[in-house]
Amino acid sequence: MTPLLKKDRVQFLHLHDVFADEETAFRRFLQRLSQKHVFISYSEAVNRIRNGGINRPYLCLSFDDGFKSCLRAAEIMKQLGIKGCFFLCSSMIGETDHERIKEFCAKKLLVCPNEFLSWDDVEQLLEQGTEIGSHTSSHPNMSRLSNDELSKEIFQAREVLGRKVGAVKHFSWPFGRFSDFSAVAAKTVFEAGFESCASGVRGCHVARSEGTLDLCIRRDHIVATWPLSHVLYLMARNSQKASASSNQWPKEWEDTLRDQSSCG
Ligand SMILES: [Zn+2]
How far is the CA of 59 from the centre of ligand 1 (A)? Predict the structure, then answer.
């Protein structure tokens, strides 16, 4: 294994789905990665970045969008002792109306119709020791929302999830690029009480980051059936590029975020 993969760091990997015919590949993939990496929970990963403790090559898995297949993925992960975080869109949990699912998947997620988790499924995920995060209420492009709409997508979704699963600490924004988010949106996420805010921007974390200004979680999107060599290549590239200052928010967002930091 390349020395880059032995480097102490926290690497977040994120997926959307593990379809039935991908389960064997997913299990094998996790087993292979476990040989040289330590899988940790999302909260532990964030704590290690916030409070220090990046002393091994750590990996953390998360899933966006809340598809039904997450249940099987979580079962496989549990069998391997891996705890992930599932970022859910609160308005779609328990949705069974096919027309609404079809429209939401086509217009909001840009994917084919796919079954969503029910609240009972979410309960089951919690029993398996996984964490639940917020991925907004309705998966908008947050860069285009008014302040009122941002509040609804961030505060209300957190409240809905919180009533069902307890306090939700982590947030990931839809589509994941900085161009799909904004400084005001990031500020609102932290004002709402979230401890972390995750992008889909590739990278990994090699140094402690204190405070809102520093902590923008980088995650590598992967697909369960990709060849392991491809995922290892992405991880090695992250490891090579990462530095203590490489995971901050865009420079031009800092003034807006600093306002929030100074308010506590
Ligand atoms: Zn998404």
Answer: 20
Number of domain units in the chain: 1
Q: What spacing in Å lies between the alpha carbon of 43 and ligand 1's midpoint?
A: 20
Location of structure tokens 């086509």: 106
Which phi-psi region, left, alpha or beta, contains residue 52 (left: φ > 0; alpha: ψ -120 to 50)? left
Measure the CA–CA gap between 59 and 109, rounded to whole angstroms. Answer: 26
Q: How far is the CA of 64 from the centre of ligand 1 (A)?
A: 5
Longest dimension (CA), the chain: 50
| Structure-token match 């972390």, residue found | 196
Q: What global pTM score does this model have?
A: 0.95
Within the chain, residue ranges assigned H as helices are 23-34, 42-51, 70-79, 98-104, 119-127, 147-151, 157-165, 183-191, 228-241, 254-262
Cα 59 to its chain centre, rounded Å, is 12
Alpha-carbon gap, residue 77 to 27, rounded angstroms = 8
- Cα of 3 from ligand 1 centre, angstroms: 33
Centre of ligand 1 from the C-alpha of residue 79, in Å: 26
Residues 180-227: tens digit of each pLDDT:
999 999 999 999 999 999 999 999 999 888 766 668 999 999 999 899
Domain range enclosing 103: 3-262
Q: Report the C-alpha gap between 228 and 61 in whole angstroms.
A: 15
CATH of the domain at 169: 3.20.20.370
Q: What is the DSSP string of 77-126?
A: HHHTT---EEEE-GGGTT---HHHHHHHIIIII-S---PBPPHHHHHHHH
